Amino acid sequence: MPLFTAPDGTRLAYRVTGAGDPLLCLPGGPADSRYLGDLGGLSAHRRLITPDLRGTGRSSVPDDPASYRCDRMVDDVEALRAHLGLPRTDLLAHSGGTDLATLYAARHPERVGRLALITPGARSVGLAATGRARRELALLRGDEPWFPAAFAALEALIAGTGGDREAVAPFLHGRWDAAARRQHAAGRPDNAEAVARFAAEGAFDPAATRAACAAFGAPVLLLAGEYDLNSPPGTVAGFAELFPDATLVVQRGAGHYPWQDDAGRFVSAVAAFLSGERSGT
Question: Which domains does the chain show, CATH number per domain?
Fold first, then answer.
């Protein structure tokens, strides 16, 4: 994997997949970026440039653990853009990586062509799904054989009485089969400190970021999965309302990893957006 150097001297790795115009892709987690794969075949349309965030995958662990904070990693994204020699880049991010992408777009709006936020986290703008919204989504899966145990765990988590987070994993996927289990395992972060410090105090200033979103002139795609308890469609719709030029797509039958649930539908929607076309669900 090629390497570049962050402003604090940390050596960071990235992978390049496909050909064509570059698309900078930020993983969530923070987790090893390999779980993104080629995003269901999106690499047939764009050259995917996917960094391993500091302390994950093949990127080095930083000397200062405080640099895992989301707002501080904005400098890593900017260093990668400069390393690649791109005056401007389209930017895609998944899950918690969308908080990093949103902060990057707020700080460097002139560097972003198009912004695609996939099943986004929204802590950067102060949005959070309610327990009621998650419960309503979960009840749509009542006929699934795994539902009773998963729903009991979800109820305990919502009530704050315990609950096994791994037990609710099926709710993050459009179908809970062997491929979904592999995807779930691949996307699990393995650097607990990076995860704990990502949203540490001071990482987010929602009011300032909302104001930056309102002034952001580039097109934005927000893609939600119909069944995604992590990023419910209603929360993603609220996020979309913060931008002046936003397209909201709710991918039917999908969870938190929509390229896994229906690669064709996912790639069609994202490729159409990146090329300037409009696409439905």
Answer: 3-126+191-274 (3.40.50.1820)
Q: How far is CA 124 from CA 40, 61, 69, 74, 94, in A?
A: 27, 24, 12, 13, 14
CA 266 to CA 118: how far, in whole Å? 10
User: pLDDT, tens digit, for every residue of 93-150?
Assistant: 999 999 999 999 999 999 999 999 999 999 999 999 999 999 999 999 999 999 999 9
Do residues 266 and 240 touch, judged by C-beta distance below 8 A?
Answer: no
Q: Is the pTM of this model over 0.90?
A: yes
CA distances, 169 to each of 25, 110, 145, 181, 256 (Å): 24, 38, 14, 9, 10
Look-up: residue for tokens 């604090």? 8
Give the integer Cα–Cα distance in Å for 33 and 250: 24
pLDDT on residue 254:
97
